[in-house]
Amino acid sequence: PDFMMYSVYKFLINAVLYDSFDRKGRKHALKIMHGELTRMKKLSRHCPDNYIFHYYAMQAELARIKNKPSGDVLELYDQAIEFAKKYKFLNFIAVYNERAAKYLLSLNKQAHASSYMREARYNYERWGATEKVKCLDEKYAGLLSAVTVGELSKQEIMLDYTTILKLTKYLFEETNTEKLIEKILKILAENIGSQYCVLMLKQKDSLLVEGVFDATENRLEVLSSRSITEDILPANLVNYVFRTGKDIVIDDITKHPEYSQFPYVKSHSAKSIICVPIISHKNLVGIFYGEHREITGAFTNERAELLRVLSGVIAISLENSRYVDHMVRIYKKTECFVPKAFLEILMKENVEEVALGDCVKKDITVLFNDIRSFTTLVEKRTPETAFAFVNRYWKFIAPIIRKHRGYIDQFQGDGLLAIFPEHPEDAVRASIDMMHALAEFNASQVELQDEPVRMGIGISTGSAMLGVIGEEDRHVAGLISDVANTSSRVEGLNKVYGSRILLSSPTVQALGGRQNFVLRKLDSVLLKGKTIPTEVYEVVEWEDKLKNMSLQDYLNLYASAFQAYFEGDFVAAKANFQRCLSYYSEDKAALILLERCSHFIENGAPKDWNGTFTMTSK
């Protein structure tokens, strides 16, 4: 809207005239500018594509007026220009480039100002402001002239501290290689004055393209090590620089027939070209290529000298970011062997801080998962296909553990042992999702004309010592606790009761009132090797199999039958278990308890009967 643009121009007029005001006038101007900045801040939040670049430009003007460090002022101008380019406001790309150029001129940085003023002129011309272009040509003829830039002393170019400090700042701030390449390309385009530039890096004995920036379209691409081709740049010219390590600076391509006939040059109409090696410790690590497609004399030997000065900073930045990327990859690989969640339990930042014997006592929930008939599944396959099959299975199942705040302590070929350090509800929810994922896996098995997979899950909760186990040359992240053994034994009961997910009584107790899923107490058993009975609970997944009875009524009937069984009233228990089977004939747990009742009725119950059945196998 017009009143919004009035706000922008009101601010800029006060900013431009600020130095000509007296003390009272400056104070009034600052008040106006701060008010318009506050207004623009709100607008930029609600409609960034129309106002964000004005907000940064206003900040730049205030930073200039308050004599903030030149690097900070230019960074704000650059942000304004970048967003104006992003949203294609040619007029403000031009205006804010001109403001940045004038600021640099006030600091006597003609070389740096030249690139901004050229950008301003170019965009005024694209916008159609022909009178403005004429004014710039008259007022800044020297600044826009390649000859004048070429006459600047080598010392002045080399002492362009703003550019060097800006790149050095990124050396310390940016460790992501992809983002660093983007920033290097943009800064070089600004300071070398190129419309189009390419950054190439040496990898072994090859030169590969890592990034391309087209300033005219504000298009930046990080290409991730692409081979040099004629659609990107003149390969022969670049390969010459790569072989010799020498600069190439061409002020007018038409005067150099040895280059003007290159396919790329002919098809892209490049007029000025610069190509400079990036050197570190006397070794070529990359090449910068830049071109201008509209004017001759855009680059000079002094610009090449500036690039050589900056190449050391660029090389160090890239080496640093690549090293960090490498370390991040190593750390992520390490997490595959030592889970991050395990380190957090030990209160360690990374694996370097972990020492043999480090341990923590903690209440945890252990989930044990087992693939049924694993031997049969594997023996039909070659070792290679069996290995691939197992990994494909875990690809479906394992991510669910992490999703629910757990981590895998052990893969055991036909099963896994996972630890949930936060709350047992995480383990139960993971087990339900794992069963859903199993259905997806089996659907893929059908497509592969392979047989489906069945599995069981056992969950138990208790106290454990978690820590680093082993000896000096071999460490593992492990746990010492009976809870892992219990979860394994509980899982094995799935085969007895025909269930899929079983919980031990400590897990159910720890769940408390957070039972947002359906459970039923299945049995009370004395697990093999144990002296204390364990109550076993099933996660109910079979509601759709009931006939003529609601799930809750069925669970009440089973609970009533089990209570009679537990108290030794086997006749009443048998009758109720028979009723259960009339409503759900596939209830293997009801059938097993019915058979026990029949046995005890016929042969008598054990003398020490306490409602607990002793398991004689795992």
Could you give a short description of this structure?
The protein has 618 residues and is an alpha+beta fold. Helix content is 56%, strand content 19%. The radius of gyration is 37 Å and the shape is elongated.
Describe this structure in words.
The chain is an alpha+beta fold and 618 residues long. The chain is built from 25 helices and 15 strands. The strands form 2 sheets. Strands 7, 8, 9, 10, 11, 12, 13, 14 and 15 form a 9-stranded mixed β-sheet that branches. The N and C termini lie far apart (78 Å).
Describe this protein with a few key phrases.
618 residues, alpha+beta, nine-stranded mixed beta sheet, six-stranded antiparallel beta sheet, 25 helices, 56% helix, 19% strand
- Beginning-to-end CA distance, first to last residue: 78 Å
Task: Indicate the radius of gyration in whole angstroms.
Answer: 37 Å
- In one word, what is the shape? elongated
How much of the polypeptide forms β-strand, as a percent range? 15-25%
Total beta strands: 15
Mean pLDDT: 84
- The helicity comes to 55-70%
How many helices in DSSP terms?
Answer: 25
Strand and helix layout:
Layout: H1 2-17, H2 23-46, H3 48-65, H4 70-86, H5 90-106, H6 110-127, H7 130-139, H8 141-144, H9 146-151, H10 154-158, H11 161-173, H12 177-192, E1 196-203, E2 206-214, E3 219-227, H13 235-244, E4 248-250, H14 257-260, H15 263-268, E5 272-280, E6 283-292, H16 301-337, H17 340-345, E7 359-371, H18 374-379, H19 383-403, E8 407-411, E9 415-420, H20 424-447, E10 455-471, E11 474-480, H21 482-497, E12 501-504, H22 505-511, E13 519-526, E14 534-539, H23 551-566, H24 570-583, H25 588-603, E15 613-614
Parallel strand pairs: 10-12, 13-15
Antiparallel strand pairs: 1-2, 1-6, 2-3, 4-5, 5-6, 7-9, 7-10, 8-9, 10-11, 12-14, 13-14
